[in-house]
Amino acid sequence: MTSLSESQLSKAAAALESKNYREAHRLCLAVLQSHGPDAEAYFLLALLTADHDNPTKAIEILDRALALVPSDPRFHAHKAKSLLALQRREAAADAAARAAELGPTDALTFDTIGVVHTRLGDHASAIALFEAAVAHDDHRAAYHYNLAASQQFAGAFDLAAAGYERTLEIEPGHVKALSAVVGLRRQTEEDNRIDALVTAFEARDPTNQEAQLHLGHAIAKSLEDLGRDDEALVWLGRAKAGVSASRQYDTAMDAEIYAAAAGALVAKTAEPASGKVSDRPVFIVGLPRTGTTLIDRILGAHPCVRSLGELSNFALLAKQMARTAGAFVMDAATLEATATVDPAALGQAYEASVSGLAGDAVRFTDKMPLNIVWAGHIHRALPGARLICLRRHPLDACLSNYRQLFATSFSYYNYAYELADCARYYLYFDRLRAHWAESLPADRYTEVAYEDIVGDLEGEARRLIDHCGLDWDPACLDFHNQAGSVATASSVQVRQPLYSSSIGRWKRHAEALQPVQDILRDGGVIDADGNWLRDT
After folding, report:
1. Is 365 helix (H, G, I), strand (E, B) or coil?
2. What is the pTM assigned to this prediction?
3. Which residue from 6, 229, 252, 525 has the highest number of Cβ atoms inside 10 Å of its Cβ?
4. Exposed/middle/buried for 447, CB within 10 Å: 0-12, 13-18, 19+?
5. Is a pLDDT exceeding 60 seen at residue 493?
6. What is the pLDDT of residue 103?
7. Using alpha carbons only, how large is the chain's radius of gyration in Å?
8. In what order do the strands lie in the sheet with 363-366?
9. What CATH architecture applies to the domain 251-522?
10. Residue 76: is its pLDDT beyond 50?
11. In the chain, where are the structural domains located?
C-alpha cells in the first residue's frame, strides 16, 4: 500500500469517526479505484454500511476484507456484530471467538467482541473484554459505560457505580449513564441529582427522544425515592411524550397478535402434541415487570437448573420456518403460519439453538416474557417443556410497565408509553393467559401470582420446583445471593431479599389511574374498588 492510500484511509477513518459518511465513502472508493482490492478500505466501508443498518451488506464487504487478510481480529469482531444483528447467534458466537483467538490489539475490537458477548448473554466474558477495552483507551465514555453495565448485570454494583461516574467524567451529558447511576441506589434529600437531571432535560436537543426518555425516567425515579409520587408520574409523562407521539401506537396490531396466538391453535391444542419430547426447557412467560426475573432466579438457584436469560430463539426459528414476509417476528401472520410448521422440526431446532448455553443441565429456563404468545406452539413443538406464567394485580402490572424504560428498539413494548394502552394490553394478555390455562395440560402449564410469591415464598417455590419435575432444594430460597448475571430491569431488585413494598403501589396514584381502572373494570379483571378479580 502506498503512502497516498494510507493517508486517504486515515482520513476516511477520521471521517467515519465524525460520522461524515459521504467523505469516508468517497475516500475508500478512491483507494479501491486507484489501488485495487484493499482490506482496510473494505473494512471501513463495512463499518459505514453497518452504521446504516444494513448488516447483510456489511457482512458481504467484511468477507471481502477477510479474503485478503483472514487473520485480522477486527474483521471477525465486526462480522460477529453484524451476524448478531441478523439473529444468527451461533455464527456470531463463532466469529467473536475467532476474533478473540487472533489477539486484538485495539480498544474498539475488544469492545465490539464484548458487545457481542453481552447480547449473547455471556456477561462474564463481556466484562473481561470491556476491561481490556478500557485498559487500551481510558478516555472513551462508551467503553466505560459498557463495562459498568455488565458489572451491574453481574451484581458488582460498587464497580458499576464507579464506572458510570467515570463515564460521566468523560462525557457529562451521557444520558444512559445518568439514568443508570440513579437506578443503582435510592436517592435521598441530601444526596440526589434531580437539579442536574432537570437542567439536562431542559437543555436537551428536543428531537433526541432517547435523551428525553432516559433523563425523564431518572427524574421520575428520583422523585419516587423522595416520596413525591404525583410529580414522578408527571415526569414519566414528559419522558414518554416524544416517543408516544412519533410511534402512534396501534392497539389493533397487538389485538390481532393475541387473537392469532389463541386462534391459530384452536384445532391443534386438542390433538396429541407431536413435537420433540424433551423435558429440559422451562419457559417463564407473562407480562414484563410481573416477577419473571424473580421466578427465574428462584429456579436458577436449584443445582439442576441453568438460567439462559431472555431468548428470542423460539420466535426467530418459528419465523424462519414459517417463511412469512415482513420484518416483524411476532406478528399475526407468523403466528398463524407456524401452525403449519412441523412441530418436531421446530422443537429440535430450538433445542439445538440453545445447546451451547444449556450444556448438560437437567433443566434450563428461557424467560422471554412475550413467549406467552407462543405458548401453544411451544407445547406442540416441545410437549415435555414446562411453562410458568406470571400474574400480578392488573393495576400494579400496568403501572409497573408504564414506569419501565424499555429498549426503544423493541417495538413490541410500544404499548408502555401511555397508561391507557398499558391497560388495554393487559386485557389482551389476560384473555390469552386464560385460554392457555384452559387449553394446555396442567402438568405442563401453571400460573403463579407475584403477590403469592411474596406472601408464601417457600410454598410457591416448592410448588414450582415440583412442577419442573425436580426434588426440592433449599438453595431456591436463597435466590438473592445466587451468582450469575441478570441483564434485565430487575438486576438490582432480585439481588435483595424479597420485599412487599411494590404490592399496591397503584394506590399512590389512584386518582391519576382512574382511566386505567375504568378500562380494567370494563374488561372484568378488577371491581369498582380496584380489587383484583383474579379467578374470573
Report:
1. strand
2. 0.86
3. 525
4. middle
5. no
6. 96
7. 24
8. 305-307, 363-366, 281-285, 386-391, 445-449
9. 3-Layer(aba) Sandwich (3.40)
10. yes
11. 3-180, 181-247, 251-522
